[in-house]
Amino acid sequence: RIIRLIEVIYEVRRLLCLVFEHMQEDLKSFLSKNTLSQQEALKLLSQILSATAYCHGYRILHRDIKPQNILIDSDRNIKMADFGLARCFGIPLRPYTHEVVTLWYRAPEILLKNEFYSAAVDMWSIGCVYVEMVIATK
């Protein structure tokens, strides 16, 4: 459920290119062209939760879960992408910046500029994404 990195191309001081597996489109684009049944929305939600649980199991906060960072193929399988804002987390919590996540997907603790937050911020973002999927249901 995580996008696969195929190759890294690097030329000193000139180029850094990451080559990932191909996916059809992102969830935002998909939802703009398709309607979902409630069952289909729940299936996609389950896949998003599975990908996030995998990340959290390795103590990784994605911190930018939104439809544009969830890729979907023609069989309606999803993969999480864009880990550019991701950070490791642990106990005790350490401070993080509140300048993460697209505004509409930010958890209350980030909006309130709390520097100490945990995996709950990803869960809030998933809830926001799910609302968008429900709005797109038949």
TrEMBL record:
Coiled coil spans: none
Record key words, sorted: ATP-binding, Cell cycle, Cell division, Kinase, Nucleotide-binding, Serine/threonine-protein kinase, Transferase
Ranges where the Protein kinase domain occurs: 1-138
Protein name: cyclin-dependent kinase
InterPro entries xrefs: CDK, Kinase-like_dom_sf, Prot_kinase_dom, Ser/Thr_kinase_AS
Family label: Belongs to the protein kinase superfamily. CMGC Ser/Thr protein kinase family. CDC2/CDKX subfamily.
rRNA-binding among keywords: no
CC per GO annotation: cyclin-dependent protein kinase holoenzyme complex; cytoplasm; nucleus
Catalytic activity, EC: 2.7.11.22
Biological-process GO terms, alphabetical: cell division; G1/S transition of mitotic cell cycle; regulation of G2/M transition of mitotic cell cycle; regulation of gene expression; signal transduction
Primary enzyme class: transferase
